[in-house]
Inverse folding.
């Protein structure tokens, strides 16, 4: 199978007047179509920066990103993004938020509506199509965020700590919802999180990052089929192994 | 079973959760407050007994005379004066809106535009709108001149609120739009503009208040042309008709309340319709 997302020798340096911060150093990763990869690392290590680079919101200092064989230069609708802060448009209804990307590409109105309805149903919000964003709970807001990104049918879905602003219980529900959505859409997903539990529960592979500058410390395959039992001994063991590694990483540098 | 006086008691008891109760309460307080003002004025007028402070009754008579026959100095009715003022006010306001909003959007968007415009704006901002009045009225006449004074008054608050609005836009929203495929122009009118509208309306609200003060003041230094300010000054200076002067003052207050009240309503409506409270 061909690589769907290729990241080659990615480097990002943030420059200020008298300081240079190397955020990402020599980051290379190949992702297959339909894979869910988690980026896991200590907070502030540059996980989000990697997503923003792939999204094209910022430019790499060095390296190349290929999505379905095409080199990334600037943002585009082939890479959808889901934000921790939801970043929904409050003046639009739920349906209109989901239609936003299709509106931009000039999709005819009838098709827009049909596509929005399809994704509304997928995320379980068909009854809230005409609701306003401020009327929704956090979990519902992020369902809209996911549906909005999916409505563009992107090659890659970039999720930046999407459930980080939700309470623990809603977070668990949303993780299961995401698995259902993946089954239906077979999307390639890059998922940034600092929750080991979340990474083990969701991912095909977990990329453990070092502290700043972010480089790949280890790539862990999660071999079990989904849905997984959070409490099973092997899942617990893997969680503990990763937690220990992250702790070492923190002690080593911090 | 409910006893009669229990029902009566619950009717008279103020319930802060009840919308009607809240409305009646604030209505009663507002009306009482205004009645107190009129009473204080009346008592003061009777006690002082000077021509400069006519009683409310005499002002009321003067009001109807002004509506029906007009005033002897200017030869115009009160309606004529009000329309003259409102025309200038509306003209100045719309010109200010048409200039300040696009300029504010550009300044908020482009740092170069802001850095270039700021020195000019900071030099002009401290000049009181009224300081321009003699120049504008002599150069542009008694209609366009006061209009330009209103323009100055409305322009600055509207501009700074618009710039502020653009800067307050959540950067994640811009990122979201761009990752959904928006180009620069689409990001501007589909995200930045709607985000800024509540701030623009806030600027409109402040601008209307200042603009209304500007129009009355500017009309006071005109030699002709009508308007509420012109009416007040002439009735005071030429014939010392103090009841007429008081009618003018009340009209200024009333129209000011109406214009800012409308703006307040529109502001609230936009904010709630856009789900941005």
């Amino acid at each position: 199978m061909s690589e769907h997302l290729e990241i080659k020798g990615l480097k990002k340096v943030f420059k200020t007047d008298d300081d240079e911060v190397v955020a990402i150093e020599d980051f290379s990763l190949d992702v297959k179509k339909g894979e869910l990869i988690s980026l896991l690392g200590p907070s502030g290590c540059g996980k989000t920066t990697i997503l923003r680079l792939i999204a094209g919101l910022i430019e790499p200092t060095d390296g190349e990103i290929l999505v379905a064989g095409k080199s990334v230069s600037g943002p585009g609708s082939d890479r959808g993004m889901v934000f921790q802060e939801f970043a929904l448009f409050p003046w639009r209804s739920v349906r209109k938020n989901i239609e936003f990307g299709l509106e931009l590409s000039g999709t005819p109105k009838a098709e827009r509506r049909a596509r929005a309805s399809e994704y509304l149903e997928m995320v379980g919000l068909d009854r809230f199509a005409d609701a306003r964003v401020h009327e929704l709970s956090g979990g519902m807001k992020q369902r809209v965020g996911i549906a909005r990104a999916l409505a563009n049918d992107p090659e890659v879905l970039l999720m930046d700590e999407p459930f980080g602003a939700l309470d623990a219980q809603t977070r668990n529900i949303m993780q299961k919802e995401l698995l259902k959505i993946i089954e239906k859409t077979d999307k390639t997903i890059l998922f940034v999180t600092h929750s080991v539990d979340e990474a083990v529960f969701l991912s095909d592979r977990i990329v453990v990052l070092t502290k700043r500058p972010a480089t790949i410390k280890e790539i862990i395959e999660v071999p079990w089929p989904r849905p997984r039992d959070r409490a099973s001994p092997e899942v617990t063991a893997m969680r503990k192994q990763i937690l220990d590694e992250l702790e070492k990483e923190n002690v080593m540098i911090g | 079973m409910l006893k009669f006086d229990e029902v009566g008691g619950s009717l008279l008891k103020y319930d802060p959760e009840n919308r009607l109760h809240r409305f009646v309460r604030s209505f009663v307080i507002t009306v009482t407050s205004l009645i107190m003002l009129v009473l204080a004025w009346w008592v003061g007028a009777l006690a002082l007994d000077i021509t400069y402070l006519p009683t409310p009754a005499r002002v009321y008579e003067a009001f109807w005379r002004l509506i029906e026959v007009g005033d002897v100095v200017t030869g115009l009715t009160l309606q004529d004066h009000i329309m003259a003022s409102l025309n200038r006010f509306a003209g100045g306001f719309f010109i200010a809106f048409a200039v300040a909003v696009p300029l504010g959007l550009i300044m908020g968007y482009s740092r170069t535009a802001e850095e270039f415009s700021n020195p000019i704006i900071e030099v002009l901002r401290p000049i009181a709108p009224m300081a321009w009045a003699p120049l504008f009225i002599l150069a542009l006449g008694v209609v366009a001149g006061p209009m330009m004074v209103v323009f100055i008054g409305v322009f600055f608050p509207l501009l700074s609120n618009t710039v502020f609005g653009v800067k307050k836009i959540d950067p994640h929203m811009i990122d979201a739009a761009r990752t959904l495929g928006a180009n620069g122009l689409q990001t501007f009118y589909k995200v930045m503009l709607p985000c800024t509208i509540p701030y623009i309306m806030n600027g409109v609200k402040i601008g209307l208040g200042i603009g209304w003060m500007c129009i009355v003041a500017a009309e006071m230094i005109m030699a002709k042309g009508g308007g509420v300010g012109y009416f007040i000054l002439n009735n005071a200076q030429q014939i010392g008709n103090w009841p007429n002067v008081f009618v003018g003052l009340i009209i200024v207050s009333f129209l000011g309340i109406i214009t800012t009240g409308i703006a307040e309503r529109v502001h609230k409506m936009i904010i709630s319709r856009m789900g941005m409270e």
